[in-house]
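User: Before I run my own analysis I want an independent prediction to cross-check against. Here's the chain; please return only the structure tokens and, at the end, one sentence I can use as a sanity check.
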Amino acid sequence: MHDDDLDDFGSAKNRQKEELGRRVSLLLDAWEWEKKSPLTYPLVSDYLEGRGLGLSRQRWSYLTNGNGFLVTDPDLLAALADLFEVPHAYLLDLDSAAPESLQARLTFVQDMRELRVQRFAARNLAGVSPETLQLITDAIRKSRAKRQKP
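Assistant: Structure tokens:
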């Protein structure tokens, strides 16, 4: 095995951690939006214990932040998918696309995130120059366009 192979393997693992973290983060936002309250670690832990599974705070942090060790336990990921009411493949196969109904739900949540950023900026950046406001607006639009590419 060459050093390049190890680098590619490490990069692939990092991409997987980041993608899993992104997916779980979106699901947490969708949960909060739909249920009007956040999904906390104790609630997740209790749910998983009811299914005979354990999850430490540290491992939960890895999942939600996309850092640390890559969480690959299929039983755990399937149970989380059940909790979020999404297909198991959404968390188990990080190369899979989300089903259309889930994608619509997640796109809506991402749009709501961006709207919160825009509202925050509008409230807090009143004294900022028009040029800076334009740069912020352009960055938000680029982010949206990048996300909407197939």
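Sanity check: Confidence is low (pLDDT under 50) at residues 1-7.
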